[in-house]
Design a protein that fits this description.
CATH class: Alpha Beta
CATH topology: Glutaredoxin
Strand content: 15-25%
Number of helices: 7
Strand order of the largest sheet: 1-3-2-4-5
Radius of gyration: 14 Å
Mean pLDDT: 83
Helix content: 40-55%
Number of domains: 1
Low-confidence stretches: 62-76
Shape: globular
CATH superfamily: Glutaredoxin
Largest sheet: 5 strands, mixed
Distance between the termini: 30 Å
Length: about 140
């Protein structure tokens, strides 16, 4: 079973209500995002320590073909997030509308958000298991 859940529609709401949850914002056309998802999935397969944490991924994308032509940046491009937030359709629409207040700050994908019982407590751009563990340990210790 893959512990990195692909979140669509309003599924993110249930995920963040868990005692601990991490959501990864990503783009399917972003090589760095794909690599992070693969690294995280491999880690979670073997992980025994963080079983109480739920992990989900929301893909930020548009329905038209412009996105692939315009997005040459390897990090996923902030323009894609802005376009996705402006659209009500797609799996990211509900999440974007509910989190509009801080999503404008996101400049790089992948972007990770750590929740404790529905409250956003940490967020950071990029990848890395060590960075993830450091944040999880900080939240559990505090």
């Amino acid at each position: 079973m893959n512990r990195l859940e692909i979140l669509k529609g309003k599924a993110w709401r249930e995920l963040i209500d868990a005692p601990f949850a991490v959501i990864v914002l990503a783009r399917s056309t972003c090589p760095v995002c794909r690599a992070w998802a693969e690294e995280l999935s491999a880690f979670l397969e073997a992980d025994q320590r963080w079983k109480n944490v739920r992990f989900g991924e929301i893909f930020v994308y548009e329905d038209d073909d412009r996105a692939e032509d315009e997005d040459d940046e390897e990090d996923g491009t902030p323009d894609a997030l802005a376009r996705a937030m402006s659209t009500a359709d797609g799996p990211q629409g509900s999440f974007a509308r509910a989190n509009r207040d801080w999503l404008d700050e996101v400049e790089v994908l992948p972007y990770n958000v750590l929740y404790v019982r529905g409250k956003r407590v940490k967020s950071w751009p990029g990848a890395g298991i060590d960075r993830l563990i450091t944040r999880l340990e900080g939240v559990q210790a505090g």
